[in-house]
Amino acid sequence: MAQRISSPLELIAEFRQMLPANSKTARAIDEQEPFESIALKAVDDGYIEFSHELVGFMEVCLRRNM
Q1: 3 in a structural domain
Q2: What is the pTM assigned to this prediction?
Q3: In a domain, 12, yes or no
Q4: Among 16, 18, 22, 39, which one has the highest count of C-beta atoms within 10 angstroms of its own C-beta?
Q5: Residue 19 in contact with residue 26, Cβ under 8 Å?
Q6: How do residues 2-30 score in pLDDT, each as one tens digit?
Q7: How far apart are the first and last CA of the chain?
């Protein structure tokens, strides 16, 4: 059974483990940049799917007032 991710921070932490240290996305995560900035850098690095997941997850959290 897949592990359930319950927050954007968990999603980002899990994704960070898979990134090369020199990517823009990894540096943005390490420097704790805003979620929007991380998503944009993920697009720049070619991680389109992750960017969509992060933005979608944030939208759900906002709707639920998390």
Answers
A1: no
A2: 0.77
A3: yes
A4: 39
A5: yes
A6: 456 667 888 899 999 999 999 999 999 99
A7: 25
